[in-house]
């Protein structure tokens, strides 16, 4: 059984609404298109180690292509459309990509670096595919279904390999603790190329629920309008999503009678905003969650009934997943002690694509070592204390400081550069660059303009501070902790 078979097992012949994106799309028609795409790909000379790139914003085209690619038994690689050409080229070359599904509106960007021999498929190409007799293709549960590329500790994106079984396992767990039913309808503002966004797609399609796609979050009032117009029961966001709604919408004065629950992940949200949500969304279940792409999406949740009592906690492991905090000796820490959060379960990735060294660093003794530092209370509830790695989490994005440092140091006027994440009440963390200049006439605006030509918008420094020198230890290593404290 492919993950696609699992997702559509109960809903493939339903005439009920699956997606609302200006128009209504029903399960039966989406499933037929998924199978058409799957059958078309099965006719090609592909195997379960081949990969197909998928580039698109949230849309029915993305959904049909995503499930169709997985149905064919090959690996689907959805990527952020704002990735730089360098990153996309790296992915294309590393995976030997021969087929790319791309939304027509994004085709112009892709045309600048597509090489001969790569087949491009848009909405127009899949709209008129014939529905022929389904072709069977054997897929093992340990076969990779999806590779999600995420920035790691270097500027080279890391490909997280998730199997059909990983996706099924995590989907079942999330459905269980959120008590999702066919009647549930979630409004989606999170991108589907992000594991949190795809988890919304996976879970609601599995139970026969529905999704409302909103690609206009720059106008936050539309979120509230959609929830009420379409009677959405659920909404999901990263910390900045809710902080923007609290600060830049009328949510405090708007009644949302259909809303049953909201979920938050993608970084720690300040307690002050959780308290505001509790006050504003009385009667709505608020799930504070924790996860990683390496864990398919979700690792833990805090039951809404404990939100006030355990404020700031990420809760405990989701159903079927063991989550604990261990010290350097591998033993669980005592309450109040700090250690690294580790996880074990069927949702843990197969590994990083083509990167055995990085895989071995995080998959040890049957556990995923998350790189996040935490502690536990007397009842075993986990609290994140910080991150062992220096990855910056801003608005749900994982950002590598090294990539930004390498970009800034390209400038002749810059002698040294160090980038850190600093607290930001909207984005959770913001990017701050400390630079040492050899040209005092060079300005922050010059640095930003250079970065705009090299980096996607979410990686641009929000703050730049010019310093005389960077603090270093005796080995010449920059003391990042000192910089963070000096912010």
Automatic annotation (TrEMBL):
Pfam families: AMP-binding, AMP-binding_C. Gene3D superfamilies: 3.30.300.30, N-terminal domain of ligase-like. PROSITE patterns: AMP_BINDING. The keyword Ligase applies. Residues 13-353 form the AMP-dependent synthetase/ligase domain. Keywords: Ligase. InterPro entries: AMP-bd_C (IPR025110), AMP-bd_C_sf (IPR045851), AMP-binding_CS (IPR020845), AMP-dep_synth/lig_dom (IPR000873), ANL_N_sf (IPR042099). It comes from the Bacteria. Residues 403-477 form the AMP-binding enzyme C-terminal domain. Belongs to the ATP-dependent AMP-binding enzyme family. This is Class I adenylate-forming enzyme family protein. It comes from Clostridium malenominatum.
């Amino acid at each position: 059984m492919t993950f696609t078979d699992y997702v559509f097992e109960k809903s493939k012949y339903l005439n009920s609404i699956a997606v609302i994106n200006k128009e209504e799309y029903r399960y039966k028609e989406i499933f037929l298109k998924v199978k058409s795409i799957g059958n078309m790909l099965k006719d090609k000379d592909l195997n379960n180690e081949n990969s197909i790139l998928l580039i698109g914003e949230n849309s029915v085209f993305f959904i049909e292509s995503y499930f169709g690619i997985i149905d064919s038994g090959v690996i689907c690689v959805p990527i952020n459309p704002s990735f730089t050409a360098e990153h996309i080229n790296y992915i294309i070359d590393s995976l030997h990509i021969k087929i790319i599904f791309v939304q027509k509106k994004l085709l112009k960007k892709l045309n600048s670096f597509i090489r001969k021999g790569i087949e491009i498929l848009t909405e127009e190409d899949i709209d008129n595919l014939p529905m022929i007799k389904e072709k069977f293709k054997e897929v093992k549960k340990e076969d990779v279904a999806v590779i999600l590329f995420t920035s790691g500790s270097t500027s080279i994106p890391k490909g997280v390999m998730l199997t059909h079984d990983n996706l099924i396992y995590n989907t079942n767990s999330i459905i269980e603790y959120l008590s999702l039913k066919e009647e549930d309808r979630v409004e989606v503002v999170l991108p589907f190329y992000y594991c949190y966004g795809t988890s919304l797609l996976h879970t609601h399609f599995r139970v026969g629920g529905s999704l409302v796609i909103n690609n206009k979050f720059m106008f936050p009032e539309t979120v509230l309008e959609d929830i009420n117009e379409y009677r959405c029961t659920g909404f999901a966001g990263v910390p900045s999503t809710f902080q923007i709604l609290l600060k830049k919408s009328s949510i405090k004065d708007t009644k949302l009678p259909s809303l049953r629950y909201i979920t938050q992940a993608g970084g720690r949200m300040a307690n002050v905003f959780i308290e505001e949500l509790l006050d504003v969304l009385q009667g709505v279940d608020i799930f504070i969650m924790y996860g990683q792409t390496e864990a398919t999406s979700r690792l833990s949740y805090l039951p809404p009934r404990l939100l006030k009592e355990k404020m700031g906690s990420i809760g405990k492991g989701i159903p079927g997943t063991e989550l604990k905090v261990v010290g350097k000796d591998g033993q669980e820490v005592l309450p109040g002690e700090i250690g690294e959060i580790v996880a074990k379960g069927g949702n843990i990735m197969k590994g990083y694509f083509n990167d055995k060294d990085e895989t071995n660093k995080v998959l040890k003794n049957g556990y995923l070592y998350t790189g996040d530092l935490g502690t536990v209370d007397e009842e075993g509830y986990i609290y994140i204390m910080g991150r062992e790695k220096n990855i910056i989490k801003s608005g749900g994005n994982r950002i590598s400081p090294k990539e930004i440092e390498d970009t800034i140091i390209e400038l002749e006027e810059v002698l040294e550069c160090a980038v850190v994440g600093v607290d930001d009440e909207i984005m959770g963390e913001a990017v701050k660059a400390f630079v040492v200049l050899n040209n005092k006439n060079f300005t922050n605006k010059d640095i930003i303009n250079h970065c705009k030509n090299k980096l996607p918008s979410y990686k641009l420094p929000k703050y730049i501070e010019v310093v005389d020198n960077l603090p270093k230890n005796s080995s010449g290593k920059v003391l990042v902790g000192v910089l963070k404290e000096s912010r």
